[in-house]
Amino acid sequence: MHPVESLAASLESHVQYVLQTAASSPPGGGPAWDGVLAHYRVAAFGHDERGASVRNLRMARGALPGEVRAVLEGLCAWAGGELARMRQDASVEQPMPSWPLEQRLTALVAVETPRYELAIGLAPLPAAPVATAGLGPAPPVAAGPSLGSIFANAQQTSKEVPWANQSYKQVASLTCVHCGGPQEQPLDFMCKYCRRPIAGALKPTT
Amino acid sequence: MHPAQQNVVAQYNQLLQQTGGQLGGLLQQAAGGCQQMIAQNPTNPTPLGNALVAVEQQVKAMRKQANDAFRPHFDHLCTLGPAEPGHFEMKRALRYWELWAEESWMRFENHWRVEQYRAMWPAAQQGMSKPLPCSRCGGPLRRTTPHKSESIGCPACHTVNQALPDAVVATYFGGMPHTFAEHATMGKKLDTAKFRAQWEDIREGEDAAGRPWPEEPIERLKQWEQLELAYWKAYAEERVKNEGGTPEDVKTLVESRMAHFYQQMNVNDVWRAAHGVQTMAAKQEVPKHLENVDEWGPLDPRDPKFVENYWVHQLLLEWSEREPEKHAAILKQLGYKEELHWQLVERTFTRHFSQFMSTAEGQAVLNTAGMRAMNENQKLAVAGAAAGGLLDPVEGVSIAVYGQLQVKQGSGIAPEEFQKMLAQHQMDQAKWERVQKGWLDRMSRDTTGAIATEYSKAFMSGQQGQFAAAGQASADVMAQGQMGLAGPAAGAEPVSFDRYCEISGAMQAWTKQGKDISAMLDKAFKISAMDVSTISVYWSQKMMADLSMFDQQTTLMARYEQQYLATP
Are B105 and B61 in contact (CB under 8 A)? Predict the structure, then answer.
């Protein structure tokens, strides 16, 4: 496995661990979640803020989404740093298959935070009306010919080229048009027997 | 970034993910088809080639989709507040997605082409060891280079036999050297693309942070040069090894491929400064006391064609910026004492005519000047190439004779008939192939297009059959330096404009459908690919002389493409 792929796998296991611990914590977090925050060196919100957030968000369970977000941001920073280090590391095989991981890092916080909120039963934030208008998932690409028909066409029509059934003689020799004598010296186009141009005429080459 | 903006960025990333998924799925599905195609046609690469071209069209459509989606997302981002850093993130995501898409396609295409040549190898090997009897007495001939044409004297009857490579051998060596070289060096090619993308990151990052766009430092430019050199050197060595060539061939190939890089650097101020050359910015400076002095140089402002003449000079000098020696020669030829002299004329013209140039009349003059400059540029290129020996005959064969014989060969003539024709020009098949390679090598080295111009003239005037008059008319326009100024003779019209658009639209449709172009041209229009090139040159020249025809062409071609796509 390429080190980039290992990094991507490691990132995913961290993300899963963070989200699972957060989701299984009591409302506002608990000792396990505090352990996660300490592990990832993220400062916990103050006691009052935690309490207010739990009340206002009517949380029935789970760590605070703001804290989860901060941990995810920290994870992204760590993985991004590792990726940058690998780019400079001569022992890491280049080019690196880094695009999927880069995409994941760019979108991770924005994708995983709302997903976590949904998982703990919080209503998702209303989408910004302007931001989402007209922007949906990738539309299917305008239907072109199907792959099946492409391969069938390629197979069929290549047999229909005008030269399909033509064959050529692999070896031929020049015979004098005047006397019928053969060419006996390469690049000598005057007939050895009748001393006339073997192909009937000599034309300029420049 | 505002959460709503984060949302937009996330949506765009998601769209890229999904489009990437679609692309991956397409290639995965197509892989099965390619495998089957090779199994059915192990010695004929044409079906696979046609299918790959069609699959590539679909890949391009997906890439276009990712690119087209950028703008609406960006517009939404802007309506939600300051566009940075969201814009930077989206641009970066798209850039790396594009790199990934490009790499995926390149690796896919090359993989299957390599597989095709691997499947062909046993038959090629067999073809090379096949015994070859003398065409006169049947005695055995001994081949030394069975992958090339050669003249072999029969040990029994002394007749000279012109031996061609076996069909499969010729096909194998026609494509394998490039395909395998590409396979061996693809990583190096992609390294350069990634290196360039990293610089874009840095540059756009600075821009996103509100700082001015930085100039790429010389260290990076030199690194870029080394990457390009490493790639082209590796590619050339591999390719020449595969086709059997000399170290000189490697050197020539590398030089020709690096020419583009160095031309780019010739207008890069950082590179120029590092190499002790005056920067472009400094070159355009005019001393304070001359800033408002009128200077017309070799041009006469009373000449009714003055504005047109000025633009011809302007364009010729601008187009040659990347080649300093050529630029200096053109400057002298046009009658300027030095660069400063031209700069003064340029400023004088701008002072007096910038308003006129914004009128429709000014634009019309500019269009005519553009066409004239193009013809002049071609003439200069041909003269330069001739002076530099690029147009000297190859093994005694001129570009004109080479072009005319190419027409004959492409007309479907039997090899033994073609060999008789070659004999009249004192060539055997082996020499003809060396001449062919010699001219092709020179064409690929020639960055001015001079050889291609001369070749086109010979090729068009050598046309025979139903479109000979059109070919000759087009060659006349080129020879008279009238491209874009006067169309070829109307009486020589090969097919109507509507028919030309129909043929072009049909070809686009067939490309997307995986259909073989030569087969379909013959079936639908009873013409060959060579006829299409004659027809296209004729109508391109007409369109250049009447630019309004381009719009008509686009509309008609799109309509015909749809019509032909409707036929499965």
Answer: no
Query: Are B368 and B424 a contacting pair, CB within 8 Å?
Result: no
Q: Do A205 and B568 touch (CB under 8 A)?
A: no
Model confidence at A54: pLDDT above 90: no
CA–CA min distance B535, chain A (Å) = 19
The span from the CA of B538 to the CA of B187, in Å, is: 42
Per-residue b or e along A6-20, where b marks 16 or more CB atoms closer than 10 Å to that residue's CB: ebbeebeebbeebbe
Which residues of chain B are within 8 Å of residue A150 when distances are taken between CB atoms? 33, 51, 54-55, 513-514
Q: What share of chain B is helix, strand, coil (3-state, %, to 5)?
A: 75, 0, 25
- The pLDDT-based confidence of A142 (bands split at 50, 70, 90) is low
**Beta carbons within 8 Å of B515's beta carbon, 6+ residues apart:** A153, A154, A157, B50
The chain-wide mean pLDDT, for chain A, equals 83
Q: Within chain B, how many helices (H) and strands (E) appear?
A: 22, 4
Alpha-carbon distances of B204 from A79, A107, B89, rounded to whole Å: 22, 19, 10
Question: For a pLDDT cut of 90, what percent of chain B falls above it?
Answer: 79
- B447 or B416, higher pLDDT: B416
Fill in the amino acid letter for B87: H
Predicted local confidence at residue A136, as pLDDT: 53
CB B545 within 8 A of CB B484: yes
Task: Say how far apart CA B407 and CA A124 lie, in whole Å.
Answer: 70
Inter-chain touch A144–B420, beta carbons under 8 Å: no
What's the distance, CA B446 to chain centroid? 12
**Could you tell me the pTM of the whole model?**
0.77
- The token duo for B272 is 């120029």
Distance CA B335, CA B297 (A): 7
Which of A103, A149, A204 has its CB closest to that of B93?
A103
Written as six digits, the tokens of B427 are 């060539």
Closest by Cβ to B159, choosing from A141, A168, A182: A182
Cis amide leading into A126 (omega within 30): no
ipTM for this prediction: 0.87
**Higher pLDDT, residue B527 or A102:** B527
* C-alpha span between B40 and B47 (Å, rounded): 10
Q: Which residues contact B367 (CB under 8 A, 6 or more apart)?
A: B547
Q: Which amino acid would we find at residue A103?
A: Q
Contact B426, A174 (CB under 8 A): no
pLDDT score, position B272 = 94
Q: Work out the average pLDDT over B148-176.
A: 95
Residues contacting residue B27 through CB under 8 Å, at least 6 positions apart: B55, B59, B104, B105, B108
Query: What b/e readout covers B331-350, taking b as 16+ CB neighbours within 10 angstroms?
Result: beebebeeebebbbbbbbbe
- The length of chain A in residues reads 206
- Mean pLDDT, chain B, rounded, equals 93
Q: Higher pLDDT residue, A104 or A97?
A: A104
Say how far residue A103 (Cα) sits from the centre of its chain: 9
B478 to chain A nearest CA, in Å? 20
Query: Is it the case that residue A130 has pLDDT exceeding 80?
Result: no
Cα pseudo-dihedral B444, B449, B453, B458, rounded to 10 = -20
CA distance B216 to A116: 43
Distances (CA, A) of A198 to A182, B157, B223, B533: 8, 18, 59, 34
